[in-house]
Task: structure prediction
Amino acid sequence: MARRTHRPTWRLLLLILALLVGAGGVVARLVQVQIIDHDYYAAQAEEEHLRRTVVRAPRGAILDRNGYPLVTTVAAFDVYIDPRSWSDDAAALQSAAELGPLIGRQPTELIGAARGQEQGDYLAARSVSAVVGLQIMELAPPGVKAVETSRRFYPEGDLASTLLGFIGRDQAGLAGVEADFDRELGGIASEVYFERDALGNPIPFGRRLGNEPVAGGDVRLTIDRYLQRLVEGKLDAEVQRHGAIGGTIIVMDPKTGEVLAMASRPSFRLSQLNLEDAGQLELYRNRAVTDVYSPGSVMKTVTMAAAVDLGLVAPGSTYVDDGAAEVEGTAPIRNWDLSVHGTTTMVELLQYSLNTGAVWLGQLLGPDRFYQYVERFGFSEPTHVGLGGDSAGLVRTHRDEGWYPVDLATNSFGQGISVTSLHMVSALSALVNGGLLMRPYIVKEVAGPDGHRVFEPVVVRRAVSEETSRTLVQMMNAVVDGMPGHLAQVSGYRVGGKTGTTTFPDRPDTIASFVGFAPVEDPRFVMLVRLDSPQDSPLGGVVAAPIFSDLAPKILTYLGVQPDIALVEGNP
Result:
């Protein structure tokens, strides 16, 4: 019987051929992926498993002059939700029920907000505490991830808010010292790659590539936290008591220009900062540095100093006050209280704050010499304190278009000229420290990425002679201690100063101010007190002088200056 031969059918041949072609394709693809395009696909795999992030440097602290922290950085977490993971109602409810109480949000509201996110992850909470962040990571609710970040912490609460300023969401300084010294505080960020899980969270003990950031440095201020708190508490109380719309108090060391305390109102609370509230924008500026005002009769001390320095008058020199000063082309200028004093000494001119006497001195000086001294005292330029918004004074001189002789007259007693509060306290410091205009400064030391810097006192120029300074110290002491019942007097200490009362340029409300110093024998501080629009009295001698009287002994005691027992007992 013949044996049958089995031959593959044409279908089997086609199948074998297809398998060979397919295998060849697979092999070819493998060659392409693993050999030809190896680097490309390896990079893609790395991209899938590694996440790139910018790691900001730990931000430096802001310290007071004695090293006490005013601002520090603490660990925090931002909490994100992947909306895709919450598409299932049961899963979303479970996760929201775990997450909501930890971040202070209702679960149903949280689900609605997360699902309403059109693209990317939903930011459920920003800068939660490290404790909360670690709890979330431990619970690991589906679709939720906690990303490590940091936030600023204020050990002294809302103290010095307008001075310190704040940072934005990107951890960069936006206002105050935070902005002005952002490079020093912020350090140098770096790029880091880490292995991540499906939600994008770092895998424990996974790979981490990249350089570590360079930490920001600390900034030590000249501010003393005790004096700052003392000043702010008093300012808040007095603004409320007098129904004022705001105010400023600055305490400065006249020998160095160091600002020991600086407070202005209205301001904002660091604990309630809301950058999305446009209504708060007006509160962020440091008014002691940015806002100009007419200093009023405090300016008479500068006019007097110029005349004394040039040898034109001495404390006992006299003029005749008939109650009105004639100025070409204008109505007579009268004293603030419409008084008439007859033959009057220069000391009495300051004691009674006579406008007519200031006009007489201005005419005696003439515009060339008067405005030369205005420039010497720094009113025509910014103070260069090192803070943002540092404003120059508004001074129109006889060299400017639109100047008239009446401008010299009004400028001599502090009207028609505008300066900042920092200008004025710096000028009075020059009058009592021996005649040197010191550059005011607020930062004492910086340790940043660029190294260590220490800021020293800087003499801008000599404003008046040492002899003139000694003379003005005694004259301003006579203004306070030489006037029975003056409200700036301080038991146990000899003090000096000058009041000022002026109006806002755009409304009739007054600015009541007093600038004083103590003790007369060796001035340890100069203080400017200013209240804006007090409702009970417009006068600096009534409103601002008592604030100085209350604060001065507390400051002197803190600085270690003991009262004179003889003065306490009422003996000269």
The chain has two domains: 53-116+123-221, 225-267+283-323+334-568. The two ends are 153 Å apart (CA to CA). The chain has a mean pLDDT of 88.
